[in-house]
TrEMBL record:
Gene3D superfamilies: 3.10.450.50
Family matches, as Pfam families: SnoaL_2
The protein, known as: SgcJ/EcaC family oxidoreductase
Boundaries of every SnoaL-like domain copy: 17-96
Natural source organism: Geodermatophilus normandii
Amino acid sequence: MASGLALQDIHPAVERTVNDGDVEGFVALYTADACLVGPDGATVVGPEAIREAMAPLFALRGRMTVTTRHVVEVGDLALLSSEWSYTAGDVRLSGITSEVVQRQPDGGWLYVIDHPYAAPASGATAPDARAPATAGA
């Protein structure tokens, strides 16, 4: 069973794993049945599908910044939102997330639903549906 992180460490872990090119560390932030929503609204479920969806983004070797907007904890669930941006050469992506994390048996937290494109970032336009899925940010 995967072990989770402290709630306040989720967004920094997303930023760190993306910036370090650590796809395995990134995938480890999700439960076995977690759902990731892509820029076109399509969903993928589970670690293999999340790894595959994120491969194009990790291949770009860009830089991500993540700023937590809010965290609402209720029992073993928490709703998170962040504003993120990602730059790799001429590629510029950004968004506002809507995320659900769940407390794990070890007391740590992991993603169960991650929608990195829930809303455009401040001053941004809607993402191109062909853009790589950018999770957790």
